[in-house]
Amino acid sequence: MTRRVALITGGASGIGRAIAAALVEDDVTALISDIDPVRTEDAASALRDRGAQAEALPCDVTVREQVDGMAKAVSERSGKLNMLFANAGVLVGGRVQETQPLDMAWMLAVNIAGVFHTVQAFPPLLQAAANAGEPAHIVVTGSDNSLSVAENYPYTIYTTTKHALLGFADALRRDLAGTGISVSLLCPGATRTELYDAKRVRQNAYGGAEPLSVDVRERYEAASAASTAQDPAVTAGLCLEGMKLGAFYIVTDPNLRRLVDGRYAELSSGLDWLDEQLGRASARDEEGAPVAK
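Given the sequence above, the corresponding structure tokens read:
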């Protein structure tokens, strides 16, 4: 088998950078993509300094032409792709009442359209790997916000985009069934990343770059370091282990169980109510199907 190749969007920092670092330890070539060319090259260079094979592919995933150009570059380089991590994402907090329209548009453009562009551009290269009997896997980075609603602070539009990715990834695995290309949804909880400073690379169409001041950034960094948020290296390790198991849901925060259980208990209650309204018995067989009275 030839050397495996992985592309990671949002790969210059946080979870994406940690995934790249974990992959090269397993002798995978890491193609690191991010919107900031300097940080993208720094991330790739740091891996090459360790003797790994890594390349920088700067790209704005909201621009389809750039994503297609990146796919063409990968095709010319290797003719295949074994792993695609659609990981780029941004966050602006706040309730619906507080969210600016441009911030809403920015999150939808990066977190949803950017994932769509990325995933749609690369299946031919993933299929080439699958046809050669090699691994072929797409990982969409969702969030615990894909499966629940944050309790500690309102991230309403961010939560909306991450719920959308749950539906997208689930439908994608149906679309790719039988192709040899696997799909997973990575659902990390609180993780020590720089997502709080996402506006530092915001495109002009959505209000332009707005990096945090040095003192504000230092306060965020100190709070993150003192928090119980997960080390991105741990998140990356769990992601790769979940991929090896063929898991669709790759959840990294055990605290999510309580929120998920609560949501589905409420949903189950709603379905029981429906059975009663339609005159069906609430009793169910071993497979969960209603049993007629």
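Residues 66 and 206 are 18 Å apart (CA to CA). Try to locate this feature in the token string yourself.
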